[in-house]
Amino acid sequence: MPVNLTAYDKEHVDYEDPNFRLKIWTLHHPSQPSAQYGLWHYHEEVELIAVLQGTLSIETPHLSYHLQAGHVVLLGSNELHRSHKHGRDDLLYIVCHVDMAAFIDPSLLPYLAAFTGRSANLTQFNETLRKYPASIEVIYQLIHQMLLDMTIQQRGYELSINVSLKKLMYTLIQIDDAHIIKPMDPQLAEKLRPALVYIEQQLEIPFQIADISSKLNYNSSYFAKLFKKGMGMTFTSYVQMRRMKRAEQLLLTEAWSVTEISGKVGFTSPAQFYQLFKRHFGCSPRQFVEKRTLPKF
């Protein structure tokens, strides 16, 4: 049966805490039969699903996954998919959306391109997981633990979730028989490391790729290809990502105006900063601060 891809939507994920880019919750579908699939959709975030009760089908343009209690599925960044409830039994499952780039620190940069979906399709791991039921159980429990941590939010819950995500990534690497995850070549990482240090040191001022390539004695065109090969994104995209990360830190820790902060992260035009910030976070800088600082009841 041909797959109709005409109706789809790029989903925007709203985080409870925009500074902690993970959203996890449970979905419940009551005891009633359903013959309809949900709409096709996709999002930048990696998605993890763990079924607690009932039967759930997840369909991508190329494969279908029929999940029962205890099963998990992994959907890579921008993977087009839709879901379907089977049978009359209650369906209860956990959904987790995570911006992997926000959880990969500099020590893990060799894995950035792979786990953010820029050099690997993480959805391919579902076939591998079928051969490793013990690893399915590990991932299932990790998703449970992240839900518990995010729900209770005891002191230090962010660290616990970070640990769970790192263990999940390690579990996937351990069963990666097909070499889906290809870490950056160590020699390439060594070449790029000075550039990454320079970027962090110079975020407050405007600079171009030619400024860095000349300091490292590279041709600009060659360095641009080298950077994209290693990082899985263009030099400009990476610098914008780092400027936005610095901007969110300043918005929440300093009493500066948006215009002042735009200058502190290398923008000569506050309007350009505003547009990029809204595209990156889905809200204005002022709304970002209000969401983060309003008291919770």
TrEMBL record:
Keywords, ordered alphabetically: DNA-binding, Transcription, Transcription regulation
Domain of life: Bacteria
GO molecular function, one term: sequence-specific DNA binding
Pfam families linked: AraC_binding (PF02311), HTH_18 (PF12833)
SMART domains: HTH_ARAC (SM00342)
Keyword set includes Transcription regulation: yes
Start and end residues of each HTH araC/xylS-type domain: 193-291
Keyword Transcription regulation tagged: yes
PROSITE patterns membership: HTH_ARAC_FAMILY_2
Protein name, entry field: HTH araC/xylS-type domain-containing protein
Organism whose genome encodes this protein: Paenibacillus ferrarius
Top-level taxonomy: Bacteria, Bacillati, Bacillota, Bacilli, Bacillales
